[in-house]
């Protein structure tokens, strides 16, 4: 392991690397002038995308976006969502493992509120619930094998993609079945992690034409095991609790949250469970395509995925080892089960193409956290009374329907429009009880025979309606103006039920609350683009994004006072200018933009001294910065790439009554800078065999996060190497991930769905240095 501080936060390997990217951005104007005079270039190697709900290339789409083809994903070893985030500028994450990741873009954090700030799509299916699902911000981590491409759209996409997309949108596009021939592909991987457990698994794809040129089926299956590297260490009865720490006054005084954890590294150890944060992913994805003629196509998609984990990828802050310490032997399993079915009908009606997209998905997440220390702190006890877990079960299902049309003419006027409807039901249930706590109650409240500390059941229902459209007109052959609007309407209904020692009644009697809300509004978008030739695109965009409000669970008034339960929606106005240029006959690709985001009514998480976090509209914020992507191919087989962003995201004003938030405070979970750099070279060993070497470096700057208190997480650097021997149709890849064995603090306490406490902060950590081999073949 690399050297680290006692908190486990590593010293950065790279210092201020983004200065080069900033200098590159300063050269946008001269580059644009030179490219405008350059001869046209063929666009045959461009990735075709559907960011604007119609087919276009990345170069000709006048927005800030990145697209990675399936071949690029394979060449770079990008096989999960976290790898996508590391490879694309302007996007960051808050994660503790697969299925437990929140996405952020352009300074718009999702740590506050219940809705995501980044939309997430699998083909035509919106996978991030549009509002107030307590697990809605945690996106599915789908298998990326046999993917056609990934599209990352930066900036508000509220016109065409709706709520939850005010920071941007991520789209995963699968390969559709081929009607004319049988084909297949598979891969197998094995790897070893330094200080951890081995990993292995594989993928398989089969494409079967059932009726030649009319009906075909494509099926993708995955089974993967990722070995863990974090230990769970169980202490004896002398598990450290620092004397004189403020504990021991008992529940009657509600003196809690004064406990101080002792030196766990000196505790007597009764059990050590090694590498508990293993994960196993099982996935099956299928697509059935029916094309009776050239004008009509019907696609039915289905997917099942289950991810299970033995524990979180977290260690205890302040401990010398990469481990979680606990007074009782209590496991912390996680499971995420998802299934989806969808249907897409496309009809070519001549001047317009009509698309109908219908989907239904169901997701169940369950997780259990060791809560012995948290409850001991909550109740101000002088000892750990007994083992107790906090179990959460999130069940969500959503039906959605979109009907849209897009004009196909090559004339100056183009139009995209449609209607959207979704119905979401999401239930958050929690249980925290043990007989050891049966004798406790608050303020002389009645007995609690089951020892319920906290139990809740909170069904949430929301219906969303929207009508949207974008019209574009070419003022000249090179100059195009686009105007878009989306009218949206929400209706929500939340029923909250909870009981236990840690609730308002203080015993088994329930506290209930019903909240119904509605919201409606209009999201505009204005875009002006100038494309004098296929080598140059210049654009400017003004757009509005929005996010619905939500509900925080009630907290006991005796300890927390009158904490707000409801919070309102927030919105953002985005201003952006950018360019995309091809230089030197296409050997240099240079894309750059600068954005400014004014964020109103920021949904911010607040952690009061009583330990019950809640969300409030804290005030207004501003985020701005440059984004740069440059690729240089001086010769056919050698490629250099560099991308990055510098982000300034801070609170500009604070609403009256908001505690813990101040003017100038950085927005949580937003890196100050990110840089991705790589170099690859392909050597032709003979007419049929190639050897490709690739080195990639991912730098993430300082981040502010919140556990019980706000903390600054140090920058980190992750270096990967790959060596691919290929002889069609097979390839053999040797790889090293995290070459320098960096111990990166990704986030703090993002799995603390129970109470937050100053005595225990847990840090999400990346995988140590890993060596592996992958064999892939096509048939």
Automatic annotation (TrEMBL):
Ranges where the TonB-dependent receptor-like beta-barrel domain occurs: 336-739
Lineage of producing organism: Bacteria, Pseudomonadati, Pseudomonadota, Alphaproteobacteria, Sphingomonadales
Keywords, alphabetical: Cell outer membrane, Ion transport, Iron, Iron transport, Membrane, Receptor, Signal, TonB box, Transmembrane, Transmembrane beta strand, Transport
Protein's organism: Novosphingobium nitrogenifigens DSM 19370
Record-level GO cellular component terms: cell outer membrane
Stretches assigned to the TonB-dependent receptor plug domain: 58-169
Family membership: Belongs to the TonB-dependent receptor family.
UniProt topology in membrane: Multi-pass membrane protein
Transcription regulation is among the record's keywords: no
Compartment(s) of residence: Cell outer membrane
Signal peptide stretch: 1-35
Residues in coiled coil: none
The protein's name in its UniProt record: TonB-dependent receptor
PANTHER family in UniProt: FERRICHROME IRON RECEPTOR-RELATED, TONB-DEPENDENT OUTER MEMBRANE RECEPTOR
InterPro entries cross-referenced by the UniProt entry: Beta-barrel_TonB (IPR000531), Beta-barrel_TonB_sf (IPR036942), Plug_dom (IPR012910), TonB-dep_rcpt-like (IPR039426)
GO biological process, one term: iron ion transport
């Amino acid at each position: 392991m690399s050297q680290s501080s006692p908190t486990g936060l590593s010293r950065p390997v790279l210092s201020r690397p983004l200065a080069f990217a900033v200098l590159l951005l300063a050269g946008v104007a001269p580059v644009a002038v030179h490219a405008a005079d350059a001869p046209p270039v063929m666009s045959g190697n461009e990735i075709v995308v559907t960011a604007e709900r119609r087919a276009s290339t990345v170069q000709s789409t006048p927005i800030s976006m990145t697209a990675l083809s399936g071949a690029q994903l394979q060449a770079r070893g990008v096989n999960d969502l976290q790898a996508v985030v590391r490879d694309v500028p302007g996007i960051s994450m808050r994660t503790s493992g697969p299925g437990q990741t929140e996405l952020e873009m352009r300074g718009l954090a999702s740590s506050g509120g219940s809705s995501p700030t980044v939309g997430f799509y699998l083909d035509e299916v919106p996978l991030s619930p549009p509002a107030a699902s307590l697990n809605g911000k945690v996106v599915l981590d789908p298998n990326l094998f046999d993917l056609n491409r990934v599209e990352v759209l930066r900036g508000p996409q509220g016109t065409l993609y709706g709520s939850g997309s005010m920071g941007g949108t991520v789209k995963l596009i699968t390969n559709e079945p081929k009607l004319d021939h049988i084909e297949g592909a598979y891969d197998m991987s094995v790897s070893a992690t330094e200080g951890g457990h081995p990993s292995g698994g594989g993928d398989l794809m089969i494409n079967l034409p059932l009726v030649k040129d009319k009906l075909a089926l494509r099926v993708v299956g995955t089974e993967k095991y990722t070995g863990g590297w974090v230990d769970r260490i169980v202490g004896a009865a002398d598990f450290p609790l620092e004397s004189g720490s403020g504990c021991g006054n008992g529940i009657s005084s509600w003196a809690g949250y004064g406990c101080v954890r002792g030196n766990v590294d000196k505790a007597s150890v009764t059990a050590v469970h090694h590498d508990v944060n293993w994960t196993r992913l099982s996935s099956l994805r299928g697509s059935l395509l029916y094309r009776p003629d050239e004008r009509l196509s019907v696609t039915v998609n289905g997917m099942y995925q289950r991810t299970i984990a033995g524990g979180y990828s977290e260690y205890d802050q302040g401990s010398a080892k990469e481990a979680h310490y606990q007074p009782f032997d209590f496991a912390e399993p996680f499971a995420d089960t998802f299934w989806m079915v969808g249907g897409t009908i496309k009809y070519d009606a001549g001047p317009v193409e009509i698309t109908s997209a219908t989907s239904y998905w169901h997701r169940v997440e369950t997780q259990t956290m060791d809560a012995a220390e948290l409850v001991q702190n909550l109740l101000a006890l002088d000892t750990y009374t007994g083992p107790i877990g906090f179990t959460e079960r999130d069940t969500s299902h959503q039906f959605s329907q979109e009907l849209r049309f897009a004009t196909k003419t090559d004339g100056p006027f183009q139009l995209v429009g449609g209607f959207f409807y979704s119905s979401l039901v999401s239930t958050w249930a929690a249980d925290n009880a043990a007989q050891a706590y049966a004798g406790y109650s608050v303020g002389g409240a009645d007995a609690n025979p089951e020892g319920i500390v906290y139990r809740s059941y909170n069904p949430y229902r929301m219906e969303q309606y929207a009508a949207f459209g974008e019209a574009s007109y070419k003022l000249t052959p090179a100059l195009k103006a686009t105007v878009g609007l989306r009218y949206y309407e929400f209706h929500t209904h939340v029923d909250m039920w909870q009981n236990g020692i840690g609730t308002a009644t203080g015993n088994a009697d329930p506290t209930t609350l019903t909240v119904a809300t509605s919201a409606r509004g209009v999201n505009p978008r204005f875009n002006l683009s100038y494309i004098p030739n296929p080598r140059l695109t210049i654009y400017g965009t003004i757009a509005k994004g929005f996010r619905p409000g939500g509900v925080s669970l009630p907290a006991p008034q005796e300890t927390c006072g009158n904490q707000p339960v409801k919070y309102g929606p927030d919105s953002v106005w985005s201003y952006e200018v950018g360019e995309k240029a091809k230089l030197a006959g296409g050997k240099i690709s240079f894309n750059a933009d600068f954005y400014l985001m004014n964020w109103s009514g920021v949904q911010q998480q607040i952690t009061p001294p009583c330990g019950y976090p809640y969300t409030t509209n804290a005030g207004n914020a501003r985020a701005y910065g440059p984004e740069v992507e440059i690729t240089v191919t001086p010769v056919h087989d050698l490629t250099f790439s560099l991308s990055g962003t510098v982000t300034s995201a801070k609170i500009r004003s604070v609403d009256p009554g908001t505690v813990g938030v101040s003017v100038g405070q950085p927005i949580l979970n937003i890196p100050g800078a990110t840089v991705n750099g790589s170099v690859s070279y392909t050597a032709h060993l003979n007419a049929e065999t190639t050897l490709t070497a690739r080195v990639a470096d991912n730098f993430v700057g300082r981040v502010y996060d919140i556990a019980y208190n706000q903390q600054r997480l140090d920058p980190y650097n992750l270096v990967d190497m790959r060596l691919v021997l290929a002889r069609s149709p097979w390839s053999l890849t040797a790889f090293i991930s995290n070459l320098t064995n960096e111990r990166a603090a990704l986030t703090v306490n993002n799995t603390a769905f129970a109470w937050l406490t100053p005595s225990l902060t847990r840090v999400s950590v990346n995988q140590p240095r890993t060596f592996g081999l992958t064999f892939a073949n096509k048939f």
